[in-house]
Write a structure and sequence with these properties.
single chain; 445 residues; alpha/beta; six-stranded antiparallel β-sheet; five-stranded parallel β-sheet; 13 helices; 14 strands; disordered N terminus
Amino acid sequence: MARTPQRGKVAHGRVSGSTHSRSDSDSQAELAELRVDGLFGRYDHRLTFPHLPESSSEPSLVILFGENGIGKTTLLQMLDGLLGLDFDIFRTRPFRSCTLRLTTGQELSVATEGAGTPLTMSFDGRTGVLDPRRKGALDPKRQPEVGELSAAFREARSHISFQFIPTARTPKYPMPPEARDWYRYYEPSPLDDQPEVRLRLGMDRLRLEGREGTLGSQVRQFIQDAQGNYRRFFATESALFERILRAISGPDTAMYDANVLKDTIDRISRNDETYLHLGIRPEEWDYKRLTTVLASADLQPKQLAVLGAYIEGLDARAAQKQALVDRLLTFESVMTDFLKDKTVMIDDHEGLRIETATHATLREDQLSSGEFHLLYLMVAALVATRRGTLIAIDEPEMSMHISWQTQLISSLLRCASNARPQLVLATHSPDVTANYRQFMVGLGS
């Protein structure tokens, strides 16, 4: 007997759009809910994404579980398709409608009347009809309208960084984001259907464009981007501007101690040298000249106040760098906890350097399947933005020992320190979920 349609349980107490006060980062669009009706002609699923303030100590985590064939993987594939505006998954799976709602209230939906019938896509008052067999509009003359609709959605989700990691169904080395994003817009031949061919095509394209597409290159790019736009990746509470205002407008009394300021610039200088191997650029400031000025015996209180404000500025930027340093060192520590005969280190040239116990250097593709998947997942967490990063992982336990599975979620959260990525996992492993049962969302019966 066929089972009656079941609706996925909503994660308890973590419904998006709760009544906490919203900061500027909260006002940027994030995912609120995914609804799929009539999946396989039998199931209605509803997935609510937590939307938590940065002050919350609770992780933004959803763990999907349910019987085989209930649609866990398909849910993640549909989410990936909607966010990338790639509707091929909807052309091959039976369903009635699928809707993705953002925290802004905007909704992207796709619906069909049955197998082989056109797909109706809608967003923010716009509607387009897609061909049921191939990419693009049903009526080629309507393609500009579909393009405008797609552009509107891309703008609405521009602050959302999404990575779908279909761990169980890719070749040994999953397609990096750059290759996957290129492949979305590539028109493949029937021979290009195999995952291994997709990966090779994407990687070959990256090489032609001068981009490696390796995990190391992702880490190197993250380090560069984080130094250029700190607030994109890290939460911060800085009162530097207020302190400078007080320094330049206060009374003519010494607000700073020259010896304390000297200790501060000594510390900043030492750290600048220490972190060079991580690829972190030092500040452009003159340590020797500043030391000489601070040693002057005839410094006036107002002069000392201005120098103090300047050094506080250096110290504030050093604190921002320290958040980046802490995340990078945490990543190294996490990988050390997992790997017993290999070491993964941040490298200022390659992004990552992998060494054996005998100090031989390895490429990423020389790792075992389990080691590479682990590294792939941890890098995805490492490069997470402050808000707006969603990482969806299908069966993260694949190729991993049970001892690794029990550490997996906590390690992902550690690697994304000072950021709040949303994690969505589909798993059958009780070891992965052992310490996070409250975040489990059941699908089906």
